[in-house]
């Protein structure tokens, strides 16, 4: 199976993931991998986050953006829902 989009993670993603308990981390990594096939499944964000999307992996959020022209999904942040938008 080939990927439709390439995934590029911000440098801070690996540090953020290391702080998340393993069972949740595995679910988050799977959700990120799935973005290569369906990057538009996440909900659009607004206000200061226009152009970005989120996926919920309760209680965590994955914040990302999609570059349709280059077929790239940029993973911008991963964190608990209470702090990821700050």
UniProtKB/TrEMBL annotation:
Keywords: Toxin-antitoxin system. Belongs to the RelE toxin family. It comes from the Bacteria. This is Addiction module toxin RelE. The keyword Amino-acid biosynthesis does not apply. InterPro entries: RelE/ParE_toxin, RelE/ParE_toxin_dom_sf. The keyword Transmembrane does not apply. Pfam families: ParE_toxin (PF05016).
